[in-house]
Amino acid sequence: MRYFFIVIGTLIFFITDSLCNFRVPPGTVLLDRKTSTYMDAAEITVSAWAEYLFWLKKEKGEQSEAYLSAIPDSTTCEKLYGAFRYFSHPRFRNYPIVGVNYSQAIAYCQWRTDRVNEKTKKEKITYILPDVQDYQMAFDKQKKIKKINSGIEAVNSKKRKLTGIGFNVQELTADSNVIVAGIEEGHLIFDDYRGISYTLGFRCKAIISKE
User: In the chain, what are the domain boundaries?
Assistant: First the structure.
């Protein structure tokens, strides 16, 4: 069973005019200066995914394969406050999107790449899933966690530092067989990908290149 998103309030679209003269891709922090690589400070949120669905519905149609295939499988999320409420209630709009699979995450990265590059002129941004090495580098840069709370927490959009890696939701990686599974004795651990889950989300890596 799948539930449709209900977007409440005014959508603030992900892409802004400020991208035309960007220094850092929006929502990201520097990961590796040598390779001009950036990484989302936090996981992709329910709100960001709702904007993605809004665009697909408007541009492709409500019955299009692109739109229907992007809807998360909500049956995996019933343990999160009720599947329908998690994806529709304003309280959870800044929580990580969960219940999406590897193919859906890849499609989102491509959509984000296309939308951002409609605004850029001299440089190109490519969004992809971070690989294991990216996550390890980001984890080392992330502020050390003193206490890990149980359950999934909201993303703080105001923070400009890496957060949530290994201790909020599990995360998809560029390797379709591997996910970020958690933290054990201060080290980031990885595990096999077993399909969509109410604890599995993702974030993007951004690579800047000259046109």
Answer: 27-210
